[in-house]
Amino acid sequence: MKKIAILNNKGGVGKSTVAVQISHGLSKLGYKVILVDLDGQNDSSLFLGITEADYNKTFYDLVDKRSNIKLEDCIIEARENLDLLPNSHIEEINAEFYRESRIDLVLNEKLSDLENMDYDFVIIDCGPQRTRINDAVLCYVDDIIMPVQVEAASVRACGSIYEYLADLRLSPDKITLIIPNMYDQRTKDAKENLEFLQEFFNDKEDIITPPINRRVKITEAGKMGKTVFEYDEEAATQFFNVLERLVKKIG
Question: Where does the signal peptide begin and end (predicted)?
Answer without folding.
Answer: none
